[in-house]
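Do me a favour: review this protein, sequence plus structure tokens, and tell me how the chain folds. Record follows.
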Amino acid sequence: MDADRDKPFKSGFAALIGRPNVGKSTLLNALVGQKVAIMSNRPQTTRNRIRGVLTTNDMQIVFIDTPGIHKPHHRLGEYMVEAAEATFREVDVILFVCDATEPGHPGDDHVLEKIHGVQTPVFLIINKVDAVPKPDLLKMIADYSQKGPFAEIIPVSAKEHIQLDVLTSALAKLLPEGPKFYPEDMVTDHPEQFIIAENIREKVLHLTREEVPHSVAVVVEQLERRENSNVLYVHAVIYTERESQKGILIGKRGAMLKKVGQLARKELEALFGNKVYLELWVKVKKDWRNEPALLRRFGLDER
């Protein structure tokens, strides 16, 4: 026990990068043991850099989940890629996440080009290993090991929590000695408004199809805990780009918007431990993804 007490405390930052839809957000949630990033099978779900904190007896790792690196088609897409690339210089280690079920994906090569030559150590994290035969996995490891000087190659399954302890142990060996950046019980540094808005957007992603999900931004206009009340009052606006999308989001006799609200309220009540009164509105802001002022207003450009 004396040896454990004398063990130096380590801390640092790790960026999760990769092309869209390889499971970065699922991995982040699994590592910190709680949902801090929304999840969807749609690509480009993550728009901001989401920070999740893992604290143990001898280390604290701040994971930064970045937007998927892709070739952008609008200003929002450009910002998302810029936000991901900016982390390369800000962290102690880069976790390059790829999908074991899609070996040799050209999107992975695009990410590798972006990180080529960076001085920050890079771990190759092969996710979804529970879904592939072992010979296929071994071939993928051999193929990718030829593509870059990875400090570690670690196969994991975020969904099934396979080898996550191996990943955290490898990080502990690499991290420098340092202080706790956040309190032990904190798993994310994002404010309540951000968490609520992302939760609502996640429900839109799950319930709508085609062009609607990526055209949506959510802004919490009002958040209030009234005195002597156990109710959290939330007024939020779902912004989209076209009147036709607004119609889809509201639905026949308001059915879609009601369903979004019901699902979001249920999860938020479990998360905050309060009753939640959630009022949702839908408004149109034409072509907002190409408007820098609106991106800043919606909290999507943090520079």
The chain has two domains: 2-174, 192-297. The domain at 192-297 is CATH 3.30.300.20 (GMP Synthetase; Chain A, domain 3).
